[in-house]
Design brief:
Elements lengths: L1 H8 L5 H14 L5 H16 L5 H10 L14 H14 L1 H4 L3 H17 L4 H20 L1 H5 L4 H8 L4 H12 L11 H5 L5 H5 L4 H12 L7 H11 L8 H11 L5 H4 L6 H10 L4 H16 L12
Helix pairs in contact: 2-4, 4-7, 5-8, 7-8, 7-10, 16-18, 16-19
Organism: Crypturellus soui
Protein name: INT3 protein
Length: 311
Amino acid sequence: QCYRDLALVSRDGMNIVLNKINQILMEKYLKLQDTCRTQLVWLLRELVKSGVLGADGVCMTFMKQIAGESRAGPGPPGAARVAEEGLFLGFFCREWVLKSSILIAMAVYTYLRLIVDHHGTSQLQALRQKEVDFCISLLRERFMDCFMIGRDLVRLLQNVARIPEFEQLWKDIIHNPQVLSAQFTGVLQLLQSRTSRKFLACRLTPDMETKLLFMTSRVRFGQQKRYQDWFQRQYLSTPDSQSLRCDLIRYICGVVHPSNEVLSSDILPRWAIIGWLLTTCTSNVAASNAKLALFYDWLFFSPEKDSIMNI
């Protein structure tokens, strides 16, 4: 009833409502109680069902909050449930999601990452299977929309290559690319395409992003230990949070590009943060993936299209 009244009195196409939801998602989400989170997801679904202009932007902000179960340790409770709600958003409003290429690509990027984190208990197995089906259907039906992710799509698909559905997809990518799209010529075409910053940023919650940007713009070299300890306690302390290091390193390489002024000052340099992230890896697989994340742009660097700051 409240939603109906809101829709009736709104004179700006729900613009104020969307801005407010965005603000809550960005700044207050971690503090919301479960009831409020459920209501927020419900409201988001209603906005999508009503085809409100700009709701896709709010959905992308919501996806940033779908942290993997690995980060549910000291972070917000029920990350897996949030993922399920986000997935439901995709299934429930599938036709609507398919109207927006960027939303398709963002959803695939998000859920390919979550599949890696959602392993273990039987409860998560069911969720993981839903995520696999969701990603495979979008990759097969709308491959060129997913292509806009660029070379990081290959990196993410490598991490899930052992799952039977993705194994079959890999065979098609390598041996029969035309099955996926007439415009797709093969894996090299993907690797030569740079990944946009908006994808690299979408796997960090707004809170992580703020803290990381603070460290790379305000903290002096030599005084970083307490900030790093805090960050580690908050986000990197669970055994499963190993996979987050790749996301952080890709973000630092592709998004955090300090000005010459900062580079020549005594502000904490990017290499020091990446070095710290690499030394805190306790799993060999995570360490290998983190190193690959660091050298990924270097392997396929093209002076015409890529930024030197990515190396």
